[in-house]
Write a structure and sequence with these properties.
This protein is of the alpha/beta class and 196 residues long. 29% of the residues lie in helices and 24% in strands. It has helices at 10-17, 26-29, 48-66, 80-89, 147-162; strands spanning 4-9, 32-35, 41-45, 73-77, 97-98, 112-115, 124-129, 165-174, 191-195. The protein has a seven-stranded parallel β-sheet, sandwiched between helices. A two-stranded parallel ribbon has the order 1-2. The longest helix is centred in the first third of the chain and has 19 residues, at 48-66. It starts with a strand and ends with a strand. The model has no long low-confidence stretch (mean pLDDT 89).
């Protein structure tokens, strides 16, 4: 059993451990991260325009700080439709491209915009997670499915998405009607930023 985590920083791991669904594998959570870095950010926005601006600023500044090209960043969304919208809203110099699971192009020389499901098993130095609003994450419980089980799966999906970040992480949620999964996050482990 590996007891040391070389994939992500102490600050990211400590912050996202709050997001781990109940019943998460304790052995997975009890690893000790080796690296250190900035606190992850919770960005609360008032409009799609302010989200797009803050997202572009976050990606640009994080890549500059880490001295990395835009190909080392990913934006993760609940749906492919959102991925397309986000890719179109980012500045041309970031060369963002929305990708489906079946056509994920890790060699793309720009920001990869993927669904959370498509990002499973992948890692990126810089990650932004968007779409954290009520009825998008979690989605409405499908008929015939246990509500508790559905919420556990959805929270695990968010945890997995956030754990794709190796060096820098930001999650974006609207100021109004945010996902219940982010309303309990505090400035003990997160840098909280409010943008118009």
């Amino acid at each position: 059993i590996l007891r040391r985590n070389y994939r992500t920083t102490q600050e990211i791991w400590q912050a996202i451990s709050e997001l781990a669904a109940e019943g998460a594998d304790q052995e997975t959570l009890d690893v000790e991260p080796v690296f250190s870095g900035p606190y992850p950010m919770l960005v609360r926005y008032g409009s799609h325009a302010s989200r797009a601006s803050a997202l572009g600023d976050y990606l640009t500044q994080s890549l500059l700080r880490e001295r990395l090209p835009s190909s080392c960043a990913a934006v993760l969304c609940p749906t492919f439709r959102q991925a397309e919208e986000i890719a179109a809203s980012l500045a041309p110099e970031l060369n963002a491209k929305a990708m489906r699971s079946k056509d994920t192009d890790l060699a793309h020389r720009g920001v990869k915009v993927l669904t959370m499901h498509a990002a499973k098993g992948l890692q990126f130095p810089v990650v932004a997670v968007v779409g954290l609003q009520l009825n998008q994450l979690p989605t409405r419980t499908p008929s015939g499915m246990d509500e508790v089980e559905h919420h556990t799966r959805q929270k695990r999906l968010l945890f997995v998405a956030c754990s794709r970040a190796m060096r820098s992480l930001a999650v974006f949620a609207p100021s109004e009607n945010p996902s219940p999964y982010v309303t309990g996050l505090t400035d003990e482990f997160w840098e909280i930023v409010d943008v118009g």
